[in-house]
Design a protein that fits this description.
single chain, mainly beta, three-stranded mixed sheet, globular
């Protein structure tokens, strides 16, 4: 959710699509936003979000156990590159999103959602890998 209708409601959601639990300890967003996970394990099929503003997010969505914390910075409403790195600095995932892909995700309240969670990561910088969510405000920790 890079350009929500209300200030403070940006979020980034990660999903574990694999069959084993992932240890996110010291995994970091290092481009676009800044956030380093503390001790956090993400089981198969589980979601976790990092948010722009914990207070605003909690007021809108309630207390969600899958919120890992608040990031520094904000997601550009014009699109930008996002990078996720492991504790050694190795890039786990890197892609660029664009605000021109879908009008409904650029301030109209819909999140930008990956079409196929199993797609190759090098395709994530292409419009065809994404679609607008189906609910205004998104559905954090539910895949939207």
């Amino acid at each position: 959710m890079y350009h929500p209708q209300q200030a403070g409601l940006e979020f980034v959601e990660l999903t574990n699509i694999g069959p084993e639990t992932i240890d996110l300890n010291m995994v970091s967003f290092t481009n676009g936003i800044e956030f380093t996970f503390g001790p956090y394990k993400l089981g198969p099929g589980q979601y976790v979000v990092v948010v722009e503003d914990m207070e605003a997010f909690g007021a809108k969505y309630g207390q969600l156990g899958q919120v890992a914390g608040q990031y520094k910075g904000n997601l550009s409403n014009a699109g930008e590159q996002i990078r996720l790195q492991d504790p050694t600095g190795k890039v786990i995932l890197e892609f660029t999103y664009d605000d021109g892909w879908y009008k409904s995700t650029d301030g109209a309240g819909y999140s930008l959602v990956v079409r196929d969670l199993g797609c190759e990561s090098d395709l994530l910088s292409q419009r065809s890998a994404w679609m607008p969510g189906t609910r205004i405000g998104g559905s954090p920790c539910k895949g939207e």
